[in-house]
Amino acid sequence: MATSPENMRREQLDSWFDQRLGERLPEKLKEIEAAKTPSMTIIVTKGTLDWAYPPFILASTASALGWEVSTFFTFYGLLLLKKDLGTTLSPLGNPAMPMKMPFGPRWFQNIEWPIPNLIMANVPGFEKFATALMKKTFKNKGVATVEELRRLCLEAGVKMIACQMTVDVFGYSRDDFIPEVADYAGAASFLPVAQKSDVTLFI
Questions:
Q1: In CATH, what is the architecture of 39-202?
Q2: Does residue 162 have a pLDDT over 90?
Q3: Where along the chain do its domains lie?
Q4: pLDDT score, position 18
């Protein structure tokens, strides 16, 4: 049975459309991907000095690269949103952490001092001593303080969200936290944000 002129035109049109689509679609998808703003969410669960650095460094760096960044502070990570950011170091919880001295000659500073857990746990004031050593070491290396990094994140537009459940459980008041906290929300509100992010980190 002969094909009608109308059907031939339709087949030719379909063929032309498929060909053009095959040529243009990959290019268009690349354009869409290039125009998309990357996003990252960070779940912050710890509030000691050493654990305060990773989320703030990652968040400020991603924001500087033009990413949209949301951070969810829950459990002990909530301490990093308090007005009084009195972070301390807990060497007992980091047995692999080398103890180096931030003063003295170079050979002395390069020594890793193996401190037994028994000493770290029982010597009065050891936690304050370790905190002072770490802060001094970071200062000597030109690393920003936790307070400076948090301020940098806020200035860069990093969204900081406090876990409402943790606030309630620990008996905190919203007055305890910096006014820049973007929202007080639970896991059900934050999970959809994390689901849509390109990168999600748990710290």
A1: 3-Layer(aba) Sandwich (3.40)
A2: yes
A3: 1-36, 39-202
A4: 67
